[in-house]
Amino acid sequence: MTSPVPTPSRPPERVPATGAGPSRPDPVLSLLRSGTGTVTVLLVLIFAVIATQNPSFFEGPPLMAFAKKVAPLVILAIGQYLVIVSGEFDLSVGSLVGAQVVIAARLIDGEEAMTFPVIGVMLLFGLLVGLVNGLVTTLLRVPSIITTLGTMLILFGAVRHWTGGAPTGALSEGFRVFGRHGLEGVPVLGQIPWALVIATVITAGAVLLMRSPYGRTLMATGDNDTAAAFSGVRVWRVRTLAFVGSSLAATVAAILIGGFAGVTAQVGEGLEFTAITAVVLGGVVLGGGRGTVVAAVLGALTVEALFTLFNQLYLPSTIQPTAQGLIIIAAVAYASRRGDLRLPERLRRRPDHPTEQPLDSPRR
Amino acid sequence: MRVPRVLLAGAASLTLVLTACTTDDPEGAPGAADGGQEGSLTPDAEWFDQAEFDTQLAQRDITPEGPEDEPWMQAIEPEWIDTSEFAIDDPEDATVCFSNASVSNPWRVTGFITMEQQVEELVEEGRIGDFRSSDAADDDNQQISDIQAFVDAGDCDAIIISPSTTATLTPAVETACESGVPVIVFDRGVNSDCMVTFIHPIGGYAYGADAADFLVENLDPGSTVLALRILPGVDVLEHRWAAAQQVFGESELEVLGFEFTEGDGAQIKDLVSQHLQRGDVDGIWMDAGDGAVAGLEAFEDAGRPYPVISGEDELSFMRKWDEEDLTAIAPVYSNFQWRTPVIAAGMILAGEEVPAEWVLPQEPIREDELDDYLERNSAMPSLHYAKFGGEDLPGFPEAWVDR
């Protein structure tokens, strides 16, 4: 069923150049060929259209307002990235954000002095949820999609039960500073939101983490956990830590979202899918092993920019999910056809290759 | 082989898009919404009934029958009907069954607590014996089987139904009627008149018009108004918007458009911020008060003056209104209506007359009443509704405070 006609989009595979591998040293081309290529193009495209609709969007304050809104999603996407790249899913983050905001409102109940103790409690709770997700998935061998679906329902139901359906209490002003306020009086920009600062720090931290030995192990685990286990990786520990990372990211996102808009009964609903969408749009492969943190962050920016664009175009809210779905499918399909999401030819696994056969049999 | 596959995928998606259009078109709603989003002021025919609109607006000015300090017992132009056929000898042993659509939002949570407290009082008085409730969690199929279960069990002496949707639940309500026990429907209606009484406040048109009238009165001609709506397609909410379109259409206000927010504070704040980036917003019309405070914060954070706003009688909004001295109104979808169905059940089982359609009063809270309502609800949580009407019930205030 293979076509004898070479596809124009992937000439290097068909024309083996002597000496120079399949990837050329051209930096522009290599950026475009990396996972971040398509999403960058899409993001620039969306920003360009926004600029034509609303030129004042890039004038500072509106851009900072956008940054404030997108920061929680960026952080959630980074958390989700850690889990997805290790070959798992975390569906519990939306419920966790909701639960954390409700817990914060109930425990703080408007008292300033409670702000930091409660943030401590929230981080501990996030840690606990991450540990449960991770250990149930790795040690009890429940598929993560089931584990985190369960956690999602448990948290949702527990919060409903605890609050009787309507959250009570109030967040303190001190708590809301992180999501709502920022460094005032900055020239041109007006205000640098704390949310932007926090998201930037976490992004930088995540980039460094992925370059550390842990990050490389995480990537290797997602690519092939059997191989990783044979090379001495404690797979359960690596993956559990990824779940903990995701839950802690959701906790930080909850602090920012609660700060941004206060407590409503609907907070956090559907965020897990927005976060997964962001990660996938960034070209991170479901199933693990490929993709970069920066791509996930760009994916988050793109998803939020898309919402902004729809709003600027006065697209009816009823049709927005449809448009969003089409754009996501188109972007990922385009990226995978261009080869963004493929391993370079030399690294691609070929199960039918004769020399790999002997390796397979002793394993079973 | 590869190129045809791409073509195939492309053709498939194209088909999908095209069929999506063709299935949507006959309903007429998306087409109308296209224009509506940018502020079209012609109400969608599917959701607008001129006669009903006029009736509801007129009902706002009619003095209801019944005790003035117990609005849940009042009725507007009631047509009293005889219920002696349902009278039973031992009401103190009667079982009243309640099929609830859900408690999925704070308004329903508040109402359900009030209902439970009312039940306790009625049980103490010996007007009913036992109260059973089921919660369908907004699932029509679940509610149909809940009602069927009540009918099959055969030990309900009266069935109260708060339908989750109108058309789908109609046959289930009719099944309950056929079982011979008295049926009471409240809040959303069904397309049948087999129940003994249908209890509801005046309705969505009156709500939307109260809010829109206030904006028209308090804004100068040419001012801009942004409408924030929860969801499309829910009749009580669509009626509010249809009435507002009608009122704004006859005014000189400029409606910037409407946005669906799902009542989510973060979305509301973001959407309002974006509108503020593009120009002035002088007034905010909301079809429900959820997240009104987040919308107001968008004005604070952008350093702009507060808009004239219509929220709801939810306390977070009313407290903000008081603190910031806003020009505002709280339209009310009377939460105290949750008391009436159980009281009606007691009346029917005692063979007393009830109105065939029990239209409860529905009056917005205006500035002169604000302090009074805040005072009465001072201990209540912020997502509580001021006109919950349970101040005289035995569990007040703990039942609502520690929910």
List the helices and strands and how they pair.
The complex is a heterodimer of chains A (364) and B (403).
Chain A: H1 11-14, H2 27-33, H3 36-53, H4 61-85, H5 93-108, H6 115-138, H7 144-163, H8 173-180, E1 182-186, E2 190-193, H9 194-211, H10 213-223, H11 225-230, H12 235-261, H13 271-281, H14 293-312, H15 320-338, H16 357-363
Antiparallel strand pairs in A: 1-2
Chain B: H1 2-24, H2 29-37, H3 50-59, E1 80-81, E2 95-100, H4 106-125, E3 130-135, H5 140-153, E4 158-162, H6 166-178, E5 183-186, E6 197-201, H7 204-218, E7 224-229, H8 235-249, E8 254-260, H9 265-278, E9 283-286, H10 292-301, E10 308-310, H11 315-324, E11 328-329, H12 340-349, E12 354-355, E13 357-360, H13 367-376, H14 398-401
Parallel strand pairs in B: 2-3, 2-4, 4-5, 5-6, 6-13, 7-8, 7-9, 9-10, 10-11
Antiparallel strand pairs in B: 1-12
Q: What this model shows, in words?
A:
The complex is a heterodimer of chains A (364) and B (403). Chain A has 16 helices and two strands. Helix content of chain A is 66%, strand content 2%. Chain A has a two-stranded antiparallel sheet. The longest helix of chain A is centred in the last third of the chain and has 27 residues, at 235-261. Chain B folds into two domains: 26-54 and 204-329, Rossmann fold (3-Layer(aba) Sandwich), CATH 3.40.50.2300; 77-202 and 334-360, 3-Layer(aba) Sandwich (Rossmann fold). In chain B, helix 4 (106-125) packs parallel to helix 12 (340-349), helix 7 (204-218) runs parallel beside helix 8 and helix 9 packs parallel to helix 10. Chain B is globular and about 65 Å long. Mean pLDDT of chain B is 88; it is low at 18-38. At the A-B interface, helix 4, helix 12, helix 14 and helix 15 of A face helix 1, helix 2, helix 4, strand 8 and helix 9 of B. Chain A: Its main location: membrane.
